[in-house]
Amino acid sequence: MAKMNKKWVVLCSTAIAAVYSATYFSTEAQASSAQAAVTSSPTVSVQSTNHYAKKHITTNPNQSGSHNSTGSNNATSASNNGSSQSGQSSTQSNNNSQSSSQSSSSSQSKSQQTATQSKYKDGTYTGTGMNRRGMMQVVVTIKNDKITNVQFGNFEMHYPEGYVSNLPNEVLQNQSAQVQNVSGATYSTMAFEQAVQDALGQAQNS
Amino acid sequence: MRLAQLFMDTVVDIQVVEHVQMKKEDVEARIEAAFNAFRQVEDACSRFSPDSELMQATQKINEPVPISPYLFEPLRFALEMAKMTDGLFDPTIGKTLENYGFNKHYLTKEVTETTSDDTASYQDIVIDDVAKTLLIKKRMVIDLGAVAKGFAIDLAANELKGFEGFLINAGGDIYAGGFDYNGEKWKIGIQHPQCKDKVIDVVEVSNQSVCTSGSYERRSEKAEDVHHIINPMTKDSPNNWVSVSIIAPFAMMADSFSTVVFLSGDEDGKEIIEEVGIEGILINSELNIIKVGGD
């Protein structure tokens, strides 16, 4: 029924609009340097919403379910932590424990930076991993023992000539017959994990 | 131009069909804005980062916490889904996912272990649409895996709508805007569930999202028959469908409905697709392809 469809479509459009209307109330635009170059973009930058929670007025925390905006200090300080770290970084910067072995941590407490000496040398490292489509490269930036940026290598470089010529004919044929864009179940990122671990391995302080 | 970055444990691959006159830096800036949408949604919705807005907002019970639209909107959508399916789709599935080993941050390998009330359900989540707050009545782990990526894709698509054509592919969940480099509708292959390098069907779309839920990629390390889509009542993974692809005007719709249909029985799944007025390509365990909806 058309009516039911409309409900979901409306929910989706208002969801997108909600993100943009929030940015109009932001006092600071924490734009990345790339953003500054865009003058003709028809849409508003979304980065400034890191400050959204800062705008909340903290009132009586005992009120619940009412129209009054009830601020919780926990939520506000969390966003502050998020935005005080590099505005350009992806979530990785929020994770302080960089050990390659698994450390179990309760989500109740924030992860603590317990290392007294740095585990990784600051810098940018290129790691390589393999998957069924070939070789993958990632470029990992580390600062203060945190991953501040992870970039995928240029896609055009994905199959460097030397590598392609070594692939068995069958695989090459499949590639050319392949439809370029494929929708499938979320593709596990083992190759990228490998590549990131490879980069981290290079960064380790001996 | 085509660029890729890593977010939400997925490669996010963006291609744009740009005008020859456009400056390279301007194109890059727009694409960067699109990537940033993924960053924002991940920071808000991740259940693997203790610092995410979601994890911070669910530390205390019975306390309304103001949250940003990056968290509020996908959560609201997930709750509507839960109501429509009477809890078959339930974002409080997070603890069960943790128990089955889906608990490591994809980059840092940090393991999340949360105390949670086993009786918690979506009905214990209260959101206030005016105050934009979240309140949980019991300890719980909220998993927004079925909506957050779709939402990020929709926000990213919004950044790119000035281009004649663009394609966002976030690990197999796709939004195709406008037309491709040849001025034609984008051709999207549906991955063959077993032969990973082959496609089982091709659809042509413009200004639509194609999202696929499948059992064949992310499987539990702890239980043989379990993958990452779990029925909250039985705590088991359904095994009638191996792949469900949904075509819808928004990725958040396609993403979440592909999960809902995957969780549904044969007839219920088809019914939902028809009622909502979207399109589906369903593949069952015998590898029969069933197409529902559309012209």
List keywords for this structure.
heterodimer; A: 206 residues; 3-stranded antiparallel sheet; 16% strand; B: 295 residues; alpha+beta; 14 strands
Notes on the protein architecture:
The complex is a heterodimer of chains A (206) and B (295). The radius of gyration of chain A is 22 Å and the shape is elongated. A three-stranded antiparallel sheet of chain A has the order 2-3-4. Chain A has six helices and five strands. In chain A, a hairpin with a 2-residue loop joins strand 3 and strand 4. With 206 residues, chain A is of the alpha+beta class. The longest helix of chain A has 23 residues. Chain B has 295 residues and is an alpha+beta fold. Chain B contains seven helices and 14 strands. Chain B has an eight-stranded antiparallel sheet with strand order 1-2-7-8-11-12-13-14, with helices on one face. A three-stranded antiparallel sheet of chain B has the order 3-6-5, with helices on one face. In chain B, strand 5 and strand 6 form a beta hairpin. In chain B, helix 1 packs antiparallel against helix 5. At the A-B interface, helix 1, helix 3, strand 1, strand 4 and strand 5 of A face strand 1, strand 2, helix 1, helix 2 and strand 3 of B. Strand 5 of chain A pairs parallel with strand 9 of chain B, so a sheet runs across the interface.
Nutshell version of this structure?
By secondary structure, chain A is an alpha+beta fold.
The level of helicity of chain B is 25-40%
Mean pLDDT of chain B: 89
Spatial strand sequence of the major β-sheet of chain A: 2-3-4
Order of secondary-structure elements of chain B: EEHHEHHEEEHEEEEEEHHEE
Spans of at least 5 consecutive residues with low confidence of chain B: none
Strand content of chain B: 25-35%
Q: Could you report the average pLDDT of chain A, rounded to the nearest whole number?
A: 53
Order of helices and strands of chain A: HHHEEEEHHEH
Q: Any idea what the radius of gyration of chain B is?
A: 19 Å
Helical percentage of chain A: 25-40%
Cα distance spanning the termini of chain A: 64 Å
Number of continuous helical runs of chain A: 6
Please give the largest β-sheet of chain B. Answer: 8 strands, antiparallel
Oligomer: heterodimer
From the spread of the alpha carbons, the general shape of chain B counts as: globular
